[in-house]
Amino acid sequence: MNNTPVMYSDISGESAVAIGILVGLTMLELVLIVAVVVVVTVMILEIVNDFYYTKKLLSYISKSSSLPYRGDANVPGRLYDENGNLKQKRWYGEDGLPERDRDYDHPGSMDLPHDHDWVDGKRKDEHLNVDYDKYPDDKNGDDEE
């Protein structure tokens, strides 16, 4: 009878209350820790997600190195450098595909500005004289129409 639970009984109940409080606090702590971990994980994922899309958007807006392939019909697209100077202009045809590019500034020894034609969806390498009659504009990018 030395191994009976009666030997380990607590008639006053003080030990049971102490064990219950200890277990209760541990469970509460565990629940709080899990809740904090979940909240922090969600916040980190949101920050990473927001950072990725913000970086992508800023990269597209401020550091884009080229104009979009498609554009609004008969509305020229403009690309500016980081100082706000006009770098390139693109004219789009009725179908929204590029017809003509005008380069105002880029490295190299060619005359600036110069134009490039687009044929069958591809920009030609040949540097053309600026055609102000068919593709009018001034150096500030304002159309003279």
Shape: rod-shaped
Number of domains: 2
SS elements, strand count: 5
Largest sheet: 5 strands, antiparallel
H-E string:
HEEEEE
Using only C-alpha atoms, the radius of gyration works out to 35 Å
Mean pLDDT: 75
Helix content: 25-40%
Low-confidence stretches: 59-63
The termini sit apart by: 109 Å
Computed structural class = alpha+beta
User: In percent, how much strand structure appears in the residues?
Assistant: 15-25%
Secondary structure topology:
Blueprint: H1 14-62, E1 77-80, E2 86-92, E3 98-103, E4 114-119, E5 122-123
Antiparallel strand pairs: 1-2, 2-3, 3-4, 4-5
Task: Describe what is shown at a glance.
The protein has 145 residues and is an alpha+beta fold.
Please describe what this structure looks like.
This protein has 145 residues and is of the alpha+beta class. The chain folds into 2 domains: 10-62; 68-145. Helices cover 34% and strands 17% of the residues. It is built from 1 helix and 5 strands, in the order αβββββ. The protein has one helix at 14-62, and strands spanning 77-80, 86-92, 98-103, 114-119, 122-123. It has a 5-stranded antiparallel beta sheet, with no helix packed on it. The longest helix has 49 residues, at 14-62. It starts with 13 loop residues before the first helix and ends in a 22-residue tail after the last strand.
